[in-house]
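Lecture notes, unit on binding sites. The following record was shown on slide 14. It pairs a sequence with BIS(adenosine)-5'-pentaphosphate.
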Amino acid sequence: MKKRLLFLGPPGAGKGTQAQKLAGEHGLLHLSTGDLLRAEVSAGTALGQEAEAVMARGELVSDALVLAIVRGRLEQQQTAGGGGWLLDGFPRNVSQADALAALLEELNQQIELVVLMELDDAVLIQRLLGRGRADDNETVIRNRLQVYRDQTAPLISYYRAAGLLQSVEADGSVEAIAARIEALLA
Ligand code: AP5
């Protein structure tokens, strides 16, 4: 089974929902940069204070800050004996993807699969408005979608060119989508 995975897709596609489920079922480390940043904000750390306003606008926080978080977690996991991981919400632009490639080379690890979750904007927006997280109001959601198109969507061709990308329709029930993803892992 493939066990070094990356989830890509617009806000609200269900990356976090599916990543948590899959990681739980297969004993993978679920590394969500959004969750880790929100934890820093809640704890009121210096890092959280730096990230809070940027996240509230739906912009990307600095590459250096996010990379430090990801490096720490992946190094920690390798020291603890390694294992699979699922990156959710990272990388978010080409420079983060290049930095991840360099980090994985250092760790002698490789991405085995990139899952692109695809869904219409209208459904994404409805899902996010229904959730009501601090950054889930219509203005910020539209900005997050624009940031996704401008900065994150170029990773689709980046990982397709590397032969790692597989797409999944992200509509339907959580279970139905999970089954589509599971089918790609064999
Ligand atoms: P992040 O937390 O990564 O947010 P996001 O990409 O906008 O993703 P979401 O959490 O909104 O959506 P999701 O695809 O995970 O869907 P979910 O499963 O939650 O990032 C937040 C911010 O942090 C960024 O804007 C940025 O500022 C910063 N950040 C994070 N990573 C960064 C990075 N690498 N670099 C720089 N900045 C970074 O589901 C959404 C909703 O839909 C939920 O309510 C869920 O219950 C529901 N749902 C899920 N599946 C279904 C389904 N099948 N049917 C119906 N409802 C469903």
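Take-home: The pocket of BIS(adenosine)-5'-pentaphosphate is lined by residues 9, 11-17, 33-34, 37, 54-55, 58-61, 66, 89-90, 92, 96, 127-128, 131, 144, 173-174, 177 (CB under 6 Å).
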